[in-house]
Amino acid sequence: MTLLTNESLVDLQTRHDAPCLSLYQTTHRHHPENQQDTIRFGNLLRDLGATLLETYAPSDVKLALAPLEALVGDRDFWNHTLDGLAVFSARGLFRVLLLQRPVDDLVVVADSFHLKPLRRLLQSADRYQVLGLSQHRAQLFEGNRYALDEVELGPGVPRTLVDALGAELTEPYQAVGSYGGGGGEGAPMYHGHGGKADEVDNDAVRFFRAVDRGVLEQHSNSTGLPLLLAALPEHHSIFHKVSHNPMLLADGIRYNPESVGDDELRTLAWAVMMPRYEARLSSLGEQFEQALSKDLGSDTLGDVAAAAALGRVATLLIEADRQIEGHLDKISGRIQLGNLSHPNVDDLLDDLGELVVKKGGQVLVVPPASMPAKSGVAAIYRY
Q1: CA–CA separation, 217 and 168 (whole Å)
Q2: Looking at residue 248, what DSSP letter applies?
Q3: Is residue 290 in a domain?
Q4: H/E element holding 50?
Q5: How many CB atoms lie within 10 A of CB 166?
Q6: Are residue 144 and residue 270 in the same domain, yes or no?
């Protein structure tokens, strides 16, 4: 089980043998709310089984459901869920993604995975990352205004000073190589000028450089998310001097992340992010109004769809939690309104967002209060 990433979406978009099973469910982080999660998951499994039996033999259905049914009795798993759950299963593949927002309960059996709820989560405009850093340890968190959770550092990103420097570590640090805390009480202290003190400081600089390089290559380049630094004030100045990460914000959290709880860290992070988030949405709204006045934008669904098919849409704003039922021809851009109960009908806004991304544009899902158009879409054209 992992948090949702752009890479996980790409992996799931690869073609897999049918049947491809997709299951979405709202979950809960804490007792006693999470006690009902396994019951609801079992109900969704029954729905999956009933759908599969319409096409497949009972023995094939049993085989297809086996990985999902194994989750039911995994008590440790259900005690460590977040706000939502996405499960995908096909022959040779089983993925469980933990989501930082609730989702509508849903099961889908098809010849490909149902990924549109994931796209919306990835396109939400309030996402960010936090790099927790001390002289000895690095952590990475990802979140939004509602949640912040630690993510596993990618290959090659040093988690500790020892990981980064190894045999090149200055001798005084080698004596505390197993130290796990950072920058606070219990950290080794050296005073004076020159000698070992300068070598220790140099170790910290080299560690920060290695962390910066690894986070940029393994995380920031792929997510494009704003990055906040959470560290002691003296470490902010050092890290900003050595960093080459264009996603790193000038503002940050001037506390050792190990000294604050998860909820407090999220509160501190969102206090920094909220003004930037609101300013960004305001700026996008102004850009849209300017584009509209110059015939370089539109909030008319049919016009936006036609422009998207031609690759003209540079930026598309989609209203959060809004659905428009219908079918989009991704070649011509023609739309046909309809009912979602029909197998060829889907959510036009999701289909439109997918098309814009495929054509190299960016898509942002924004709250209704920040949406500059009543239609649910606002497009800024390239030309």
Answers
A1: 23
A2: B
A3: no
A4: helix 37-53
A5: 11
A6: yes
For residues 118 and 145, membership in a common domain is answered with: no
pLDDT digits over 356-373, tens only? 999 999 999 999 999 999
pLDDT per position as a tens digit, 77-89 = 999 999 999 999 9
Exposed (0-12), middle (13-18) or buried (19+): which is 217, by Cβ within 10 Å?
Answer: middle
Whole-angstrom distance, CA of residue 133 vs CA of residue 207: 10
- Give the integer Cα–Cα distance in Å for 191 and 208: 21
Q: Is residue 289 part of a domain?
A: no
Amino acid at 141: F
Range of the domain at 199: 128-276
Give burial (CB, 10 Å; 0-12/13-18/19+) of 285. Answer: middle
- Whether 145 and 105 share a structural domain: no
pLDDT score of 184: 42
Residue 377 lies in a domain: yes
Exposed / middle / buried, residue 347 (Cβ in 10 Å: 0-12, 13-18, 19+): middle
Q: Which secondary-structure segment (H or E) carries 364?
A: strand 362-366
Give ∠ CA 305-308-311 in degrees, rounded to 5. Answer: 160
What pLDDT shows up at residue 175? 45
Structure token pair of residue 80 = 């460590």
Enumerate residues 6+ apart whose C-beta is below 8 A from 83.
Answer: 26, 27, 28, 29, 99, 100, 101, 102, 146, 147
Burial class (CB in 10 A: 0-12, 13-18, 19+), 307: buried
Radius of gyration of the chain (CA): 24
- Residue located via tokens 């849409």: 313
**pTM (2 d.p.):** 0.82
Is the model's pLDDT at 170 over the cut of 90? no
Model pLDDT for residues 311-326, shown as the tens digit of each residue: 999 999 999 988 888 8
Single out the residue of 152, 137, 313 nearest to residue 208, CA to CA. Answer: 137
